[in-house]
């Protein structure tokens, strides 16, 4: 049986002790729906996890043959702005098109490192958009950091967080060789250590970057001829 997957917003309330008239006044209608743990989410070929404002994983909900996804979680994954206009009770996906609108940003907005660009990345000799380099396992990531070690290439790159973000989601894949990557803050405090090799495939890491001004991602140990692939379109920062 075919299933339709829709981008929707689901509201729930405790109905005990609430009369039909009270529910009608809130615009809420009780329904029977199901949390659906059998559905996985993939974005640009990569399995991803939808999360709520507290960083907890959330499941799709199936109702009357249609599967609904939480709009905030999907917006975070796609780096799309999600705002709420109280005056019209409207959820706005992307630019509202009205600079005078009194919209309130929904918390935990994520943006890809590619979208943020030089605002957080500055310049790096790892950066490339060359189509001959941006494909990994038949998927074109379009915008990447690539370490090959040639031409005295540096072994690290920097992300300027400026105390604006809470979480760094970083994806990495070794094209060749074993590598040890250390993620540090501006005080050289290690936040996370990652080991990758070609057999791992694409590896992801979520790092708490709250109260940090800068993050340094450094290859501290690597085999000869190692190559590291970091997709900027699927790595992100979350406020």
Descriptive overview:
A hairpin with a 2-residue loop joins β3 (41-43) and β4. The protein is built from four helices and 22 strands. Helices cover 10% and strands 41% of the residues. It has two domains: 4-108, no CATH class; 112-238, NPCBM/NEW2 domain (Jelly Rolls, Sandwich). The strands form six sheets. Strands 10, 11, 14, 16, 19, 21 and 22 form a seven-stranded antiparallel sheet that branches. Strands 1-6-5-2 form a four-stranded mixed sheet. With 239 residues, the chain is mostly beta strands.
SS class: mainly beta
Shape: globular
Q: How many domain modules? A: 2
Give the H and E element order.
EHEEEEEHEEEEHHEEEEEEEEEEEE
The CATH topology of the largest domain is: Jelly Rolls
Query: What is the overall pLDDT average?
Result: 81
Query: What's the CATH class of the largest domain, please?
Result: Mainly Beta
CATH homology superfamily name of the largest domain: NPCBM/NEW2 domain
| Assembly form of the protein | single chain
First and last CA, distance: 39 Å
Number of DSSP strand runs: 22
Instruction: Tell me the number of helical segments per DSSP (H or I, 4 or more residues long).
Output: 4
Signal peptide: 1-24
InterPro entries: Cu_amine_oxidase-like_N (IPR012854)
Organism: Paenibacillus nuruki
Protein name: Copper amine oxidase-like N-terminal domain-containing protein
Task: Provide a brief overview of the structure.
This protein has about 240 residues and is mostly beta strands.
Task: Reconstruct the topology from this structure.
Layout: E1 4-8, H1 20-26, E2 34-35, E3 41-43, E4 46-48, E5 61-63, E6 66-70, H2 71-78, E7 82-85, E8 90-93, E9 103-105, E10 110-112, H3 113-116, H4 118-121, E11 127-128, E12 135-136, E13 139-140, E14 144-147, E15 156-160, E16 167-176, E17 179-185, E18 190-196, E19 203-208, E20 214-222, E21 227-231, E22 236-238
Parallel strand pairs: 1-6
Antiparallel strand pairs: 2-5, 3-4, 5-6, 7-8, 7-9, 10-22, 11-14, 12-13, 14-21, 15-20, 16-19, 16-21, 16-22, 17-18, 17-20
């Amino acid at each position: 049986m075919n299933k339709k997957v829709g981008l929707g917003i689901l509201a729930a309330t405790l109905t005990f002790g609430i009369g039909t008239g009270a529910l009608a006044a809130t615009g809420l209608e009780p329904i029977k729906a199901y949390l659906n743990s059998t559905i996985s989410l993939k974005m640009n070929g990569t399995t991803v996890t939808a999360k709520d404002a507290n960083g907890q994983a959330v499941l799709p909900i199936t109702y009357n043959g249609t599967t609904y996804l939480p709009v905030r979680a999907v917006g975070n994954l796609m780096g799309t702005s999600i705002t709420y206009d109280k005056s019209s009770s409207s959820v706005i996906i992307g630019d509202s098109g009205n600079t005078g609108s009194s919209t309130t940003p929904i918390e935990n907005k994520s943006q890809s490192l590619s979208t943020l660009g030089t605002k957080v990345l500055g310049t790096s000799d790892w950066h490339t958009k060359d189509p001959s380099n941006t494909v990994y396992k038949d998927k074109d990531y379009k915008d990447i950091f690539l370490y090959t070690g040639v031409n005295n290439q540096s072994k690290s790159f920097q992300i300027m967080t400026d105390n604006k973000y809470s979480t760094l989601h970083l994806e990495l894949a070794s094209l060749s060789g074993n590598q040890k990557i250390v993620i540090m803050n501006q005080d050289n405090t290690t936040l996370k250590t990652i080991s990758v090799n070609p057999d791992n495939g694409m590896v992801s890491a979520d790092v708490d970057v709250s109260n940090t001004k800068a993050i340094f991602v450094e290859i501290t140990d690597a085999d000869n001829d190692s190559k590291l692939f970091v997709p900027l379109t699927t790595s992100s920062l979350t406020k």
